[in-house]
Every structure is written in C-alpha cells, then in structure tokens.
Here is the input.
Amino acid sequence: MQRRITPLALALSCLTAVLTPTAIDLGTCDDRVERMRHTFAVLKTFDALHVQDESWPLPVSPHGTSMYAADDGRLEYGPTTEHDWPDIAELLADIDTDAARPAWDRRANRTPRPILYLALRPDVAIKHHWPALIKLASTHELRLVVATPEPPPLAPPVPEWMAEQLAGRVLTASNGFARLDELRDIWALADTCPLEIDICTQFGWREEQQLALWIKRAERCHCAMIDEQAMTAIAWRAFAPQGPPQRWLPLRIATKVDDQRRIETTYVASAATPSEILLPPNSVTVGLLVQHLASDSTPIFHVGEPRPSPPPEPPERRRTARTKPAPRGAP
Here is the structure.
C-alpha cells in the first residue's frame, strides 16, 4: 500500500507546484516582459505618416529625410490613374476654406505653410493633375514620400504554430487596428489570460495603449497564458510599416506665372544640376520627378513647352526710344 501512495503523492505535489505562483520562474517572466517592452518601444517610434498600404507602390530613391519622427502633416494618396484622383476635390476644398492653418511663428515672423505628404505612384502620368499640384504648392509645403532601396527592418521571429496559421493568408488592410482585426483569431490563441486590465482611454484608444495592455496582462498572468513570441510577432505585423524604410523629398513647384514664363525661356536641359527644371507635358511622371531630386538638390519644377527668348531690339530703335524731343523754343 505504501508503494502505491508514494507515486500518487509525488504526482499531486508536482501538480500543485505547477498551479501555484511560487512555482513560476518570475525571473524568466520578467525577462519576457522586458523583451516585449523593448520591442514595443521600437514600434512606438513608427509614425502614422508612413504609407501603410502594402499594395500602394512608391517611387524609390536613396535620398531624402527619414519619415520616422517627421514633422506633423497630412498624408494624401493619389492619383491612381492620370484621370483619377478621388480625394483631390475634398483636399482642394479644405484648402479653399483655409482649414488646419498653422499658428503664427513668432521667430520667423510669419505663418508657416502646412505640410502635405504626397504618396504618389511612380508610374502614373500627372499631366492632368499638374494644375491641382500647383494649387497645393501655393498653400502647402509639399513633400514626396519615397521608398528606399534598403531592406525592410528585421521583424522578430514568428513561432511555428503562428507561421502555420499565416500560411497562404493575404493581409490586405492597412497597418494598425485594421490589420490587428485581421489577426484576431491568431491573437486569441496567443493571449488566453483571463484578467481584465484597465487602460486610460481619455484621448481615444491608440496603438500605445494596446501594447501597454499586452504587457500588463503578461505581468498579471505571470506569462503563463501569454505567448510572448507570438504577441511580439502580432504587434510587429499589425503596427510596424511593412516594406523598406520610407523617406520624404521636398517637391517645389513654380506657382507664379512670372516664374513659369521665366523657366520656359531660360531653362537649359544640359545643365548638370539646374535649380529650375522644365518638364515636357506629355511625359511627366512621379518617377521622372524623383530622378531629379536628391538630398542636396531641390529644383523648382514647371510643366510646359520651351519658349524662345524674344529677339533683342534693334540698336536704332533703342536709341530712338531713349532720345527725348527738344522743348519748343529751344535753339
């Protein structure tokens, strides 16, 4: 009888140890939470200004300023074809009503122009959209979003079971909570902690709050019901911009008629780094614009045909025009 009781007692003691918090390796859980905290801190540096739609191609350039921690501004997609820019009418209406005008800059003694980031497809001809771009440039500081030739940021590893769940799945929604909703079934498998955590939502529910919720749930459940590797992979897949790093390049456009006419009569195509560039109307694409943009070169663009300079006036005519008639009664 004693031999039968001993194995049962040992089994019960081991089961009790597993179910009690004292048996959980808190140091290991602390390490897991710290790893999640570090990865999520990196995710917080990703800005909402990034072009999030993976199906939206961007022109590629090795130049530009990083979109990470870029200045606040509005991000506009379009056009999809040379005759289609669905959001441009609404955008121009906002400009006409002087919406979202920045405050007066005391140091510069002027009101800065609002910033508009343009996510334009590189292959779309924009000759029909150029008048709209001129109007945008007259009221906004335009910045062209480009992708870099660099490889995408290295994503954290995905556990095997999650990779099986993702196999063959196409996630088409934009990054963020729309993408997280598409991953809801995998999320439910990775986080089975039953505890409810209160998060401040005074300013709305944001990505930072979602990540903080996962960390707090892992701490409260002692990591026993949280798959740290899967949750990290879900967070990265949902909230990190996909694809290569993105940058912006300044897009300067001649908005005044006098400047446009000057460019048409003085532009020299053979110049190495011209400060003003005249583009032929029938071949203007975003890809062509990007070819002329570099970190140390921000030319002013104009679309039009070159005009010959007016011929100089004959010398006789100039002398006649400068000679004043003699007053009456003069000898």
Notes: Residues 28-50+154-239 form one domain.
